[in-house]
Amino acid sequence: xxxxxxxxxxxxxxxNRMIFKTHKxxxxxxxLHRSVLHPVMCFCREMQTTTPDVVSASYxxxxxxxxxxxxxxxxxxxxxxxxxxxxxxxxMPSADILGSALxxxxxxxxxxxxxxxxxxxxxxxxxxxxxxxxxxxxxxxxYTENFPDKRYLHPYERSLVELTLxxxxxxxxxxxxxxxxxxxxxxxxxRAALCAKSLTKKEAEERLNEGIKCVEETFNRxxxxxxxxxxxxxxxxxxxVVDLETPTLCLVGAPNVGKSSLVRVLSTGRPEIxxxxxxxxxxxxxxxxxxxxRFQVTxxxxxxxxxxxxxxxxxxxxxxxxxxxxxxxxxxxxxxxECGTSASDQFVTYSEVRERFRNHxxxxxxxxxxLLNDKPSVFVTEDLSTETPELxxxxxxxxxxxxxxxxxxxxxxxxxxxxxHQLLISQSTRIKSQITNSEGTEVTx
Length: 445
What we know:
By secondary structure, this protein is of the alpha/beta class. The protein has helices at residues 2-12, 16-22, 30-49, 70-78, 94-106, 117-146, 155-165, 169-196, 201-221, 224-237, 259-266, 313-324, 343-356, 389-397, 413-444, and strands at 51-55, 58-62, 248-253, 284-290, 293-299, 327-333, 362-366, 403-404. 28% of the residues are buried.
């Protein structure tokens, strides 16, 4: 505080001109005046250009820039919610990026006012190479900065990236694009500096042409990374948009049991329907409107009887939906034998999935009811001698409480729609309750 008070007192001292006008002091040499006043002026200038920090009720000047806490950046990245695929930047084909960059670079003219021909030509060459570098590097930088870090995606979207593109492919392509940017920047800067040292007009022109050719070759050697990123962007944007606060109905079952047919009946979704396994090659989304409320319906790839380690990526997509989205489940069973999966295999898979996701709201449906008869379907690979009473009952009528339906004869469809509507209303109530509880927890903490 004493130092601050002294500074204020110094500012109150009138200038030397005022002192000599109002008082009859003997004239002092100018050198003496400067030696007395100069330190004061330097002190004032220093006070204006430094940033004081308050530490323990005293002021300490600090000229060091404030560091951004990396943990704060990471927390902001973690805050990303679902919907990142719809925010991806538009990726241009590599040929378009290079063609546009070459055209714009050739339009750059030398700085005005340079009379010397050699100097003007090397100035033009350096500027064109610099422009070419920027036109190539800037789009690549935008791509690498605006494609999200997979670690901070929502678990559902992270699973989609891994299962759709392959584990590690997304990160590898982004690394290659960023590496291409670095190489183009380095080569262009090196060639621009070389062109700027040309001694004659001819030499400058030759170095410019060589530089453009060298940059173009560098870009073309690894341009496939840009085209791969374009394909990734197309694939991710094609993923269905899911709203976490909207109740979702997920149809699950073995391949070719009739899930897609039921999606067409229940919602606006129009999946492909064919008589072969794994018709559904991804997550398909439709919608249902009940009492002016909109719900989501997903058709998922079929599940086979095998361990999680042996499952293909299509099956893992189904498990990802059940694991990471707030879904109610409609499990579809086909006991006719037409789907290609035996009743005993369906029963094992169903029991495992039902146990794993027992907290989900659940509805069982037996499809193709018009083809069922009193005699159950048995595959030659099945051993009935070891069959349990529970499996025998499942082979005849399916799980307890299952609805028998037929899309062809409309059997049970009205009851199915009514049950589905009740299930979605219950799921909506559950989601609202979870949101309310989470908000209450945040307020308390």
